[in-house]
Write a structure and sequence with these properties.
Layout: H1 23-34, H2 43-49, H3 53-80, H4 87-94, H5 97-111, H6 113-126, H7 136-152, H8 155-182, H9 197-201, H10 204-217, H11 233-262, H12 265-268, H13 274-283, H14 287-320, H15 337-353, H16 356-384, H17 399-418, H18 420-431, H19 433-442
Helix pairs in contact: 1-8, 1-11, 1-14, 3-10, 3-11, 3-16, 3-17, 4-5, 4-16, 5-14, 5-16, 6-7, 6-14, 6-15, 6-16, 7-14, 7-15, 8-11, 8-14, 11-13, 13-14, 14-15, 16-17, 16-18, 17-18
């Protein structure tokens, strides 16, 4: 379906949810979506080949800088086209509605449901340290349902829940950081540059480590999925993305510094659950429970963020595509109820079948592919449409988008070489969306509306 097919140009509409989302709540969504389990599990594999405090912190700093480069580009596009749904909106505007549909189809079906299922399963596993008698699956399903019910109550209650859960998450992490430096036993490690650090930074393990660090930073674009519901999005979106990403960058660097400061590298090397190892080193026997409870609280806010922003993609697609019109309907409190229920159903299906990890393997390359071309779209539009109004212009252009494209291209190359079957299969699944797009496009078009209410 093209922009002219809908009677009212679907790519220029702005969704107003009745109750605008503040910069503070949008920032909370970014922080909550970014901080999952990645930062608590990556270090053990990094220190095996990079046994240097300075190089490890440099690795996480570089990852944050690359994420900020993405923030600048997405902020320019979001200020130009302030409509919810992220890449569905951006790729449709920068290239063609069909390209936007492919990105939207992945996001609306499994792009958010699979990470929700993974985070819920991680919640169930970490909760065993607090409630060892309860199986992880019921806990995982229960937390997804709980968060979904909150989302169904409307934007106002969702905002309050998201803000409180994210603040609690950050407070607990900061408390852990303080305890690590105050109570933890200092290890013989230096965070100042040492001889040999340059060799570590230009090594292959550093480049591979950056791939996984960037996965930990994924989610920096979360607020772009709710642009249409934000107050003054042209100003609020760049602030939310930048503030949220900077907060996470600082927390990630300091977290890894605490892990290294309080725990011997030999105890961390090769370990998946480095947070529990560090927690035991800091707090003794209670360390595992303390860290498990902290991560569980943090995962609730992450699941909430994804259950909020994911359905907005399907909702916006429903505004443009008659066959999906039911998903555009919102309750009187602004919740896209059918879209939320659809994502809840998919997440539950993935949890019951334990197939979410396989789905994540399939979609990783596709998601990177969409991010790559979204940022490339900033450069394309600067060349092809230089006179388009740009309320915000990407800082550091063209160097910041080019750096992001370089790193993202290297990540895609890594996935193609290390997981060729999954990567190519994921692309085929995404490209199969062209058939679905063609079918939807042939159907009779009714007048689209951005303000459906039940």
């Amino acid at each position: 379906m093209t922009a002219s097919d809908a009677g009212t140009a679907p790519w220029t509409g702005r969704l107003t949810g009745g109750s605008g989302i503040s910069v503070l709540v949008a920032t909370a969504i970014v922080v909550a979506d970014m901080i999952g389990v990645g930062v608590f599990t990556s270090l053990g594999f990094q220190v095996k080949d990079i046994p240097s405090g300075f190089s490890i912190l440099a690795l996480w700093t570089v990852g944050g800088i690359v994420a900020l480069c993405g923030v600048f580009s997405y902020s320019e596009l979001g200020a130009m086209f302030p409509r919810s749904s992220g890449e569905y909106n951006f790729l449709g505007r920068a290239y063609h509605p069909a390209f936007g549909f492919l990105a939207g189809w992945v996001s609306a079906t499994v792009g958010f449901a699979a990470p929700v299922a993974l985070a819920a399963m991680a919640f169930g596993e970490y909760a065993k340290s607090v409630m060892p008698e309860v199986p992880p699956i019921p806990l995982a399903i229960g937390v997804v349902w709980l968060v979904s019910i909150v989302q169904l109550t409307g934007v106002r209650h969702s905002s309050t829940f998201q803000l409180i859960s994210t603040i609690l998450k950050v407070v607990l992490i900061v408390a852990f950081l303080v305890a690590g430096f105050v109570v933890g036993t200092p290890q013989p490690i230096s965070f100042a540059p040492q001889a040999g650090d340059l060799a570590h930074i230009v090594s292959a393990p550093f480049a591979i480590g950056l791939v996984f660090v960037m996965y930990s930073f994924s989610g920096w674009n979360a607020a772009t999925y709710i642009i249409g519901e934000m107050n003054t999005p042209q100003q609020s979106l760049p602030r939310a993305l930048l503030t949220g990403t900077l907060i996470v960058l600082v927390l990630y660097v300091v977290l890894n510094a605490v892990f290294l400061y309080s725990t011997p590298i030999s105890a961390l090397a090769g370990q998946l659950d480095v947070a529990s190892v560090a927690g035991s080193a800091i707090f003794g026997g209670l360390g595992g429970r303390i860290v498990g409870a902290m991560i569980c609280v943090g995962l609730i806010s992450s699941i909430s963020a994804m259950m909020w922003i994911g359905p907005r993609v399907m909702m916006t697609m429903g505004e443009d595509i008659p066959a999906l019109r039911v998903f555009s309907k919102r309750s009187v409190r602004g919740a896209p109820a059918y879209a939320i229920l659809f994502q809840l159903a998919v997440a539950n299906l993935l949890l019951f079948t334990r197939s979410f990890e396989a789905v994540l393997d399939f979609i990783q390359f596709s998601l990177l592919f969409c991010s790559f071309f979204t940022v490339a779209g900033v450069i394309k539009l600067r060349i092809t449409d230089p006179d388009l109004p740009r309320p915000y212009r990407a800082w550091g252009y063209p160097f910041t988008p080019l750096l992001f494209l370089l790193v993202t291209a290297s990540m895609m190359y890594y996935l193609l070489t290390e997981r060729p079957v999954q990567s190519l299969s994921g692309m085929l699944v995404m490209l199969s969306g062209l058939l679905i797009y063609a079918i939807f496009r042939r159907r009779p078009v009714a007048a689209a509306t951005s303000h459906n209410r039940e």
